[in-house]
Amino acid sequence: MALSISAAVLLGIIVVVLVKGGYVRLGSALICALFGFTLAATGMAPAINNGLASVAGLISSF
Q1: Distance CA 12, CA 18 (A)
Q2: Which of 52, 42, 59, 62 minimizes the C-alpha distance to 8?
Q3: By the 8 A CB rule, do 7 and 14 touch?
Q4: Closest by CA position to 49, among listed 27, 28, 2, 41
Q5: In the prediction, which pLDDT does 42 show?
């Protein structure tokens, strides 16, 4: 059985774990999220999506 999960959900879970563990403060996590939304509106968004897709393809090939 294959489990499919979006990168946004996976990264969200990682951020929640890091904030709860005290490795990242809430303010830093919010700034990173705002940076992500800003970055998604730039011309770099397709390159980032292609990079994430190729990493996901590499991981799924294992």
Answers
A1: 10
A2: 52
A3: no
A4: 41
A5: 87
- Please tell me the distance from the alpha carbon of residue 32 to that of residue 37, in angstroms, as a whole number: 9
Q: Cα–Cα distance between 56 and 26 in angstroms, integer? A: 28
pLDDT at residue 1 is higher than 50: no
Indicate whether this model's pTM tops 0.70.
no
Single-letter amino acid code for the residue at 11: L
Q: What is the pLDDT of residues 4-54, one digit of tens each?
A: 677 778 888 888 888 898 888 888 888 888 888 888 888 888 898 898 889
Domain ranges of the chain: 17-53
Torsion of CA 19, 27, 9, 59, to 10 degrees: -70
Over the Cα atoms of the chain, what is R_g? Answer: 14
